[in-house]
Specification:
mainly alpha; 0% strand
Length: 330
């Protein structure tokens, strides 16, 4: 009787969970969040992978925070009456392209270190402009600027979904057409130039396209989630997988799973889905590093095994020869 009661209780709980799941999926904001998670994962796979290959993971953060400065400029121009039609998203896109162009100019020779410095300077300039303009923007509009930093995937509206969908489609098309060129430029910029490729054009195209995608994604879900999802899955996949196509697929899977688990956890523990998704994405990189270290250690041990076996065979042969000579002497 007690076992029957336990089974009945578990069945009721499972039924309640399934009912809750279907109720949640029927909510429009949850549906938009799921679509947004899928689109962000596509953007991360198509753009974040190349940035990690190029050694420009910091550019994601720089562009995402530059969007704050652009949004602040847009709000300032609107409320000051100077340019009433200037939407904050236009400012965010302009500032993002500015960061991409400065970064691209610094890295025309292939020096990743110079590009990182350029990103850092652009990042500081954009944030300084954002903070400066906040003093001249009505306090009621300031949270709109900080929305670019924090964001919430559960607060996506139809316009955000359309914006993300267009971004993902355009990014996938450009990546599909210039896939090989982007890979060459990302992996070996100097080699691409020496082989006669128009590396500068592909270099700028990759950076500007990525910057626009990051800015639009930041407007939808915030800089924190964009930085975590664009960088960590690509870094984790690069640690474990050697195939380029495999890395693209792995980035998409890791990003999507992190976001979906963040959404599920937000309903169970009442936490921010973006924060949880960011934590899970970062943990994927930590786990990938540990797996790679363990795999390398095992590989080293296996490589050394034949050497030790050969040495042992030689020593054993010497011992047997010595014993044989001693036997003849006796």
């Amino acid at each position: 009787m007690q076992d029957t009661g336990i089974v009945s209780h578990m069945t009721q709980e499972l039924t309640a969970m399934i009912d809750f799941l279907f109720e949640a999926l029927a909510m429009p904001f949850v549906q938009r969040a799921l679509i947004g998670a899928l689109l962000i994962a596509i953007v991360a796979s198509a753009s974040g992978t190349f940035l990690v290959f190029r050694g420009l993971s910091f550019m994601t953060s720089g562009v995402a925070h530059a969007a704050l400065g652009g949004a602040a400029l847009g709000l300032f121009l609107q409320h000051s009456g100077l340019v009433p039609w200037f939407d904050p998203i236009i400012g965010a896109l302009l500032f993002s392209v500015f960061v991409a162009l400065v970064t691209g100019y610094a890295g025309e020779t292939g020096m990743t270190q110079k590009m990182e410095v350029a990103v850092g300077v652009s990042f500081a300039l954009s944030m300084s402009i954002a903070v400066f303009l906040m003093y001249y923007i009505p306090p009621t509009q300031v949270p709109q600027i900080w929305g670019y930093l924090i964001g919430d995937i559960l607060l996506l509206n139809n316009f955000d979904i359309v914006l993300l969908a267009i971004t993902a489609i355009v990014l996938v098309l450009i990546t599909f057409v210039f896939n090989k060129e982007f890979i060459y430029v990302s992996v070996d910029m100097e080699g691409s130039i020496s082989h006669g490729m128009n590396a500068r054009a592909y270099h700028y195209l990759m950076l500007v396209t990525s910057a626009l995608a990051i800015a639009l994604a930041t407007k939808a879900v915030g800089a924190i989630l964009v930085y975590a999802i664009m960088v960590a899955p690509a870094a984790a996949a690069s640690e474990l997988i050697k195939s380029i196509r495999g890395i693209f697929i792995a980035v998409f899977v890791i990003a999507l799973l992190s976001e979906l688990m963040g959404l599920v956890a937000s309903f169970t523990v009442s936490a921010s889905p973006s924060a949880i998704a960011g934590i899970l994405a970062a943990l994927s990189y930590v786990v990938a590093m540990q797996i790679k270290r363990l795999r390398d250690r095992v590989s080293i041990n296996l490589d050394q095994l034949p050497q030790h076996t050969e040495e042992a065979t030689i020593i054993l042969s010497e011992v047997l020869d010595t014993s044989a000579h001693e036997g003849h002497d006796h």
